[in-house]
Amino acid sequence: MRTNQQGDFVRGGYPSHSKLNTIVTAVIFIIVGLLFLGRNFGIIDSYLFHILVSWQMLLIVVGVVNLIKRHFFGGVITIAIGAYFLLPEISGIEGEWAGMFWPVLLILVGIMILFKPKRHRFNSHWDKRRPEYAKEIYSSEDGFVVSDNTFGSVQQIVLDPVFKGAQIKNAFGGTVLDLRRSKLEAPRTFIDIDCTFGGVEIYLPSDWNLQTQIDAFIGGCDDKRYNSSVEIDKEHILVVRGKVSFGGIEFKS
C-alpha cells in the first residue's frame, strides 16, 4: 500500500475516492466545454449536443464512476435510470420500452445479488454500521400523494376521484406519477418536488392548467403535452414548485 501525505492513493497505488472525484469533475468540465465549442463552431449537431449534454447522460456518467469505485449496485441502478429516460428521447419508443426495461433490470439486479462477492472479515464491522441507502416510500391518502424515492423506481397511479396535492422527493431514482384518473376541485393545487440526480414523470389530463415554479440547476422541466383541440380549464390550476438538480421533470398526457 502506498499513501502520500494527502491520502490521495490507496492500496496498489490507485487513486482514492476523493482524488477520483476531483479527476472526474475536472474531466466532465473539460468535455462539456469542448462540446460547447464544437456546437458553436458547427462541428457537433445541435440534436446530438442536447443528448450528450443532458441530465440523463450525467446520470450515466455518475453510474460509470460508481462502477469504477466498485459500488456495483448503485452504479448499475444509476446507469439504468439514465438510460431509461434517455433512450426514449433517441428512439421515440415510449410504452414498449418501459414495459420491457424494468423486468430486465430486475433480472439483472437479481443476478448481481446472487453472484455478489463475499466481503472480508475485517469489513464485517463496517458493514453492520453502514445504513441502507435505498428507499422507496410512497402513499396516497384522501387524494394527497407522498413519495420518497432514493436509488429506486416508483410508479404510482392516483385512483382518488379528486387530486389534492403531492410531496415528491427523488434522489438517484425515477418517479412516475399518473394523475389522469383524477380531477382538480380546489382553485389551486400544489405539487412540491425535490429532485436530485434523477427524473420525475407526471402524467396529466391535456386540459389541466399547469403552472411551474421550478428552480433548475443543470436540469430541466418540460411540458410535453400538446393538443390544440382541447380547451384548458381556467377555474383550476395545478402549481408544481420546487427544485431539480442534475435531473429532469417531464409532464405528459
TrEMBL record:
Keyword DNA repair: no
Domain LiaF transmembrane, first and last residues per copy: 25-120
Keywords tagged on the record: Membrane, Transmembrane, Transmembrane helix
Nuclease as UniProt keyword: no
Domain of life: Bacteria
Cell wall-active antibiotics response LiaF-like C-terminal domain sequence ranges: 163-222
Transmembrane segments: 20-41, 47-65, 72-91, 97-115
Pfam entry (one): LiaF-TM
Protein name as annotated: Cell wall-active antibiotics response LiaF-like C-terminal domain-containing protein
